[in-house]
Amino acid sequence: MKKTVVATLLLAALQISGCKSDKGDGFVGHWAGEGAAAKSSLDISKEDGVFHIDHHYYNQFMTRDEVNRLEATPVSDTVLQISTALGNVNVRMEDNAVWFENRKYLKSK
After folding, report:
1. Closest-CA residue to 90 (of 29, 30, 27, 39)
2. Which has the least CB within 10 A, 19, 65, 75, 78?
3. Mean pLDDT for the stretch of residues 90-95
4. Distance between CA 95 and CA 16 in Å, rounded?
5. Looking at domain 22-107, what is its CATH homologous superfamily?
6. What are phi and psi of 96, to 5 degrees?
7. What are the boundaries of each domain within the chain?
8. How far apart are CA 54 and CA 49, in angstroms?
9. For position 22, what pLDDT does the model report?
10. pLDDT tens digits for range 14-68
11. CA dist., res. 91 & res. 70, Å (int)
């Protein structure tokens, strides 16, 4: 009986702690590129625990604006991870800026 109570309490604690899905919520919003990324931006939204990243950029070879639509999962409050065929790509937040592909983006107000 005592083992059943302990197991039930442990299961309830795990379920409650697993329900908190606000990890990475600081990424949500519009981010404008800085420096080398000045002609690009990131629009990040969240739905059902999955982050949707629309990377808007100017393709100089095709001479047009393009959008790369990506999905990411939160690793922590400051890191989102995008899985690709060639491996994982991280989006990192540091000092109120987002770093993606070694380029800096600042949140628009």
Report:
1. 27
2. 19
3. 95
4. 31
5. Pab87 octamerisation domain (2.40.128.210)
6. 60, 25
7. 22-107
8. 16
9. 86
10. 454 554 558 999 999 999 999 988 899 999 999 999 999 999 999 888 889 999 9
11. 11
